[in-house]
User: Which sequence fits this backbone?
């Protein structure tokens, strides 16, 4: 068998879908460094540097700030399963796939789920969140900052304020915004926040950075029931990432090397520059698409910079265009999910992929095909 199987040779792609994005070569180099033990003193320094850099990227002073082993959904699950106890009333905002996933996880953890909905392609209306909060004592409000399934950017400050006025915790999904849009954890009063490595951080999928505020830690420490997940129990995982450094599960060493290098790249560029780069390339793409007569799904005020949802023109076949982009130009874009399947394309400009060159390439490829 070993004789007939060739060495791995994945195709070289430009990843302009909803994630993963292209990975910076320096991150891949870091991941190829020699594996060491997860309790090695040399690794402890690396962990300390990761925590310090991650706090800077998430704009938080929270002590409990570290990457959870697993993809973005593991971070989602970690935030919700640690904060929800059976019977807790949870207001979950749903205007796309990822809000729906949060509602599912909250329900699986015994939460009494109250959904606040908006049509896919529109932001959540804060007034409806207020009504849901007024209707009963609530443990937490959970909301997606950057809804990757629709390209919607959700303003958070008003919702954060009303959440705290009602003594509830605010949980925010920043999987597609962290590293591409401003995410200000402390300034915006976010109590639990998670992201993922393969979107605007441009690191392969496999880690989910999370942060918990003092209020969230207080809720964690005052639980009357055990967290249902052993693997994601933050009270135990933080013993490894904190002073004790005691074994919980074996940290994915080489993924963390890549994470370390990815964070270094972000701080080298500077958060402001990075946000401006994402904004600039988004504007360039939208102008080019509109020039071709295409129409964006989201209203201008709510458009994500890293994820551009554009309506598929009538009479154009979704799958064959995406296949041709991949086969002729080695370029990947995403299709729609749920009700939007066959109706939109999702064009990612995330992290390392967000360049003028890639925008120009996609626009000319699309022009040729259409
Ligand atoms: C991608 C994504 C997730 C899930 O992340 P996985 O890495 O696929 O587990 C969660 N929320 C949002 C908004 C996402 O875009």
Assistant:
């Amino acid at each position: 068998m070993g004789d007939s199987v060739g060495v791995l040779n994945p195709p070289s792609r430009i990843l302009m879908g909803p994630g993963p994005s292209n990975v910076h070569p320096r991150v891949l180099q870091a991941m190829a460094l020699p594996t060491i033990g997860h309790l090695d003193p040399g690794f402890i320094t690396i962990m300390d540097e990761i925590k310090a850099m991650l706090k800077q990227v998430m704009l938080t002073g929270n002590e409990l700030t570290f990457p959870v082993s697993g993809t973005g959904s593991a971070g989602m699950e970690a935030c919700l399963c640690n904060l929800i106890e059976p019977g807790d009333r949870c207001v979950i905002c749903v205007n796309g796939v990822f809000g729906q996933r949060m509602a599912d996880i909250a329900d699986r953890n015994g939460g009494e789920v109250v959904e606040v909905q908006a049509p896919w392609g529109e932001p959540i209306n804060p007034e409806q969140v207020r009504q849901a909060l007024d209707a009963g004592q609530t443990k937490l409000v959970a909301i997606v900052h950057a809804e990757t399934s629709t390209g919607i950017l959700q303003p958070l400050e008003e919702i954060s304020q009303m959440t705290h006025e009602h003594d509830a915790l605010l949980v925010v999904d920043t999987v597609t915004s962290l590293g591409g849009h401003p995410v200000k954890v402390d300034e915006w009063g976010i109590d639990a926040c998670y992201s993922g490595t393969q979107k605007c951080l441009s690191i392969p999928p496999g880690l989910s950075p999370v942060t918990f505020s003092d209020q969230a830690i207080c809720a964690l420490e005052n639980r009357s029931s055990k967290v249902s997940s052993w693997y994601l129990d933050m009270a135990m995982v933080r013993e490894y990432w904190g002073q004790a450094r005691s074994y919980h599960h074996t940290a994915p060493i080489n993924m963390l090397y890549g994470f370390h290098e990815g964070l270094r790249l972000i701080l080298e560029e500077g958060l402001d520059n990075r946000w401006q780069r994402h904004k600039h390339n988004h504007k360039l793409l939208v102008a080019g698409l509109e020039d071709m007569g295409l129409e964006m799904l989201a209203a201008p005020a709510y458009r994500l910079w890293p994820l551009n949802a554009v309506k598929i023109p009538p009479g154009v076949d979704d799958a064959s265009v995406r296949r041709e982009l991949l086969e002729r130009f080695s370029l990947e874009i995403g299709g729609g999910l749920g009700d939007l399947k066959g109706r939109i394309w999702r064009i990612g400009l995330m992290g390392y992929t967000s360049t003028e060159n890639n925008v120009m390439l996609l626009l000319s490829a699309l022009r040729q095909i259409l």
